[in-house]
Amino acid sequence: MRPFAYARAQSADAAIAAMAQDARAAFLAGGTNIVDLIKLDVAQPGTLIDIGALPLAAIEVATDGSVRIGALARMSDTADHTAVRSGAPCVAMALNLSASAQLRNMASIGGNVLQRTRCVYFRDVTQPCNKRQPGSGCSAIGGDDRKMAIFGANDRCIAVNPSDFSVAMLTTDATIHLRGPAGERTTPFLGFQRLPDDPALDTNIVRGELITAISFMPTALTRNSTYLKVRDRASYEFALVSVAAALDVRNGTIHDARVALGGVAHAPWRARAAEAALIGKPAVRATFAAAADAELRAAKPQRLNGFKVVMAKNAMVRALGTLGGAA
Amino acid sequence: MALGKVTRRRFLVRSAIPAIAAGIGIGVPRLNAVAQAASSVSIVPASGPGAVPVTLNVNGTEHAMRIEPRVTLLDALREQLGLTGTKKGCDQGQCGACTVLVDGRRVNACLTLAIAAEGKKVTTVEGLASDGKLHPVQAAFLEYDAFQCGYCTPGQICSAVGLIAEGRTRSDAEIREFMSGNICRCGAYTNIVAAVKAAAGHA
User: What topology is assigned to B136-199 in CATH?
Assistant: First the structure.
């Protein structure tokens, strides 16, 4: 590991100010991603600014009923929290299906949203990668593309976002709260993580900004949600394909729906075509299959991952089937 | 380990010192600029990248040490404190051999910076027994023969202590799922589940 300096921030503003002092500074929260990337030499921070002592770990229910998850809340604590479990079950499920118990005890919610791709070429500094070294090329294109994207990719990057939590959050119309050199701002969760138009940018965060919280409003829709994750082994593995789904079914008819896919794109993929095909239709298997087909019509698989199209369809039908009741 | 006797481990550690020192010497000039930039941060004083004073509380004992910020808790435990019970497997958070408890919760020591663990209570497999008596999880691993080569065992045991504290032992399936962060290449999983179940009082 290359040497770096270390500073423990006592306030969010001090942490943000410290970022301005070293162009190669980076925040350290749970450390599960940045420390790994430093070891791989993918990340080369001059200074790590430890934000672990900041009072941003609380999970609170506001007077209006919205749930605010502090950016430093651990994945494990978030998964166990009653307000999250009841307000958006798919979020708790997604968290418990992520990584391992040890990593979930370390990793923060804010860091989870910012984690880098697991693309093997991104993580291997001997290989060209447009995300790690802009302009050097994409080794995944024409390489081992089995785990790569089937939606939203381009000729510069076909990597996928590894976060399960982010996929689940797309069922909730969540908001990201940020604090930076220019003060505080909020931004919709949807769209915060980017498609690879500029592969170097994973999200729309501004340098020096800190995620302080993520909030969502529980509704009849979000309370009836589920998360299904399909992977190469039964546990402790990233998704080949995952589905977060939420249905508001009234008298057998789908009143509202949210569907998002993981493991298929550079950002969690909101399945809008599927949602449109669900709303107003009877909550039956034929509807779910038609919705899945509607979404996957636009899929563009790589050489080795055509299976993801079939897998995504089956996973969507199965996930929706557990919510809709009727088979 | 008898005092004064040169063991294999001590020999290796001593032999490695000149090489490590040489490595540090090469690295210093390039890093001066970074160190100076960091020291100009008035609001958040930065330390390092050279060794800085760090006090670690491990198994109830405070250790005043000098550690570079880049040193992981795993390396500090093994290389500086000689607590080699905690094992280095993948060193990437993918195997669980390095599992220790920090403030009572199981974490991967390989992805934890030692300097960031200052002010917290670290418990390793060496700190589980008390009054000369094995921890119930250690005793159960012996009773149920929950290992073969033993390399992953300290991590499995620390992880199981954390698991039981979390209350995630309601079924074999739950134990398996919530112990999945500890890989056993020998495949001793069946007996590990039995040992964890017994230690949790569900036998």
Answer: DNA polymerase; domain 1 (1.10.150)
